[in-house]
Write a structure and sequence with these properties.
The chain is α+β, with helices and mostly antiparallel strands. The protein is built from 18 helices and 10 strands. Strands 1, 2, 3 and 4 form a 4-stranded antiparallel β-sheet that branches. A two-stranded antiparallel sheet has the order 5-6. It has a two-stranded antiparallel ribbon with strand order 7-10.
């Protein structure tokens, strides 16, 4: 077989080189010569110095030209699978010719919206399945909140994009999109939205679904969240002296104020959790997950003041569904569910408003409006009891001593502990709690 063949197209001579690797001729190249002898000299020079590509310009050695032609022929016509295609694309990426490429019908080619929806679907999520298989806690409520965030923010922004198309620059652009003033999102909210998507992308990289971790080194939003207010002890005493519409609401708030329990931990309290001097915090409650482990992932014990214990037992005795060990202290119309968390927060808000308006005449509209504005600014919510508890206990526990009960009003509150022994820190917390919060309970004795 001749190494090349020459033919005339119009007035110009063209050459086709024979590729020994494929046993086929290459595409024709113009010599731009009208004389055959001149064309032959040009072909000879090309074989010696390098063959130009079909579009002219740069030249390659005959060996490189033939090898590249063979490789392209293989890609175009020979049977190979997605793994072979991935190797070719990876080679091009390593050479710096491409950044990312997606293989059709592979996991990395999945649409972002499809992947994120499945990732946060508690029933079918591979992420949830893995965490549960390893004994790690993840609740339905967390998945539902994350699903809402990706549905509202991630999916509209990345609609139609493929998983392995998402670059770090895309995530930076998305973070700037969230930061726009018209979104009116707090820094903590922006971070929560970002985490809903970056958790999924990082998981995809770790599990070799996508080729690179676009979340690495991504900056988070900084800024101060609106600080929750804390009541003074005297304010708390006056607050609990008000007539609350629902006894469950008053006792629930009182329990949180003197123990620092979270709302879900208050609602999850069952009769069997109430001991002589401590409460076993074994569960938390939310309407999606039902009873689950506390936020820390571990059960704990907290001391309960005798007066609070008495109120809890009295409340449990009113449960229309009975008072066995499994019955909820903060019961509802449904024996299988405790009361709604709104019965902790809304009555607290009403009591706070009554406290703020105490002593202000109804006709003094300006003073009442100013009082309400001040209350709004203080941002006191149910979770504020956790801060209230911590703030008023800090100075008593930092001394690393078990405070003795003083000889005045708080002593009578704590005398129920006298016949019991508590272990180390629990004893210290119990005594400190009696000393710190006894005064907010006195009104019950005087009533």
């Amino acid at each position: 077989m001749r190494r090349w063949t020459l033919y005339k197209r119009g007035r110009i001579y063209y050459v086709q080189f024979f590729n020994p690797e494929t046993q086929k001729y290459l595409s024709a190249r113009s010599t731009k010569a009208e004389d055959k002898s001149e064309a032959i000299l040009i072909v000879a020079r090309w074989l010696n110095e390098g063959i130009p590509d079909t579009r002219g310009g740069r030249t390659r050695s005959p060996h490189t030209t033939f090898t590249l032609d063979a490789a392209l022929g293989l890609i175009r016509s020979e049977p190979f699978d997605e793994q072979d295609a991935a190797r070719i694309l990876e080679a091009l990426r390593l050479r710096g010719f491409i950044e990312k490429a997606i293989i059709k019908n592979t996991a990395s080619a999945e649409l972002v919206e499809t992947f994120l929806n499945r990732f946060w679907d508690y029933e079918i999520s591979p992420y949830v399945e893995t965490k549960r298989a390893h004994g790690q806690s993840i609740g339905r409520s967390h998945c539902q909140e994350s699903a809402h965030r990706v549905e509202r923010y991630w999916i509209p922004f990345f609609l139609g994009r493929r998983l392995d198309e998402i670059r770090k620059s895309d995530l930076r652009a998305f973070s700037l999109y969230l930061a726009k003033p018209e979104r009116a999102l707090a820094p903590a909210t922006r971070n929560q939205i970002m985490v809903a998507g970056t958790t999924a992308l990082k998981w995809a990289y770790t599990n070799e679904i996508i080729s690179s971790d676009s979340t690495e080194g991504l900056a988070t939003f900084s800024g101060k969240a609106k600080k929750r207010g804390i009541l003074e002890l005297e304010e708390a005493q006056r607050l609990f002296a008000f007539e609350w519409k629902d006894e469950r609401s008053r006792v629930g708030n009182l329990l949180a104020a003197t123990t620092g329990l979270r709302a879900g931990e208050v609602l999850a309290l069952r009769l069997e959790d109430i001991g002589e001097v401590v409460i076993d915090i074994q569960h938390s409650w939310n309407p999606i997950d039902g009873l689950k482990t506390p936020k820390s992932g571990e059960a704990r014990r907290v001391p309960v003041l005798p007066t609070i214990r008495t109120e809890l037992l009295a409340l449990a005795a009113k449960n229309p569904h009975g008072s066995d060990g499994k019955s909820f202290v903060f019961y509802s119309a449904d024996a299988k569910h405790p009361m709604d968390t709104k019965l902790l927060s809304m009555p607290l808000k009403e009591a706070l408003q009554a406290l703020s308006l105490e002593g202000i005449q109804e006709e003094d509209v300006n003073a009442r409006a100013e009082a309400m504005a001040t209350l709004e600014e203080r941002n006191i919510v149910f979770h504020s009891w956790r801060h209230f508890f911590s703030a008023h206990m800090a100075d008593k526990l930092d001394a690393k001593k078990v405070r003795t009960v003083t000889g005045h009003k708080t002593a009578s509150v704590f005398e129920g502990y006298a016949d019991h022994e508590l272990e180390g820190d629990i004893a210290a917390v119990g005594r400190a709690a009696a000393d710190a919060f006894g005064q907010i309970l006195i009104f019950k004795k005087e009533a």
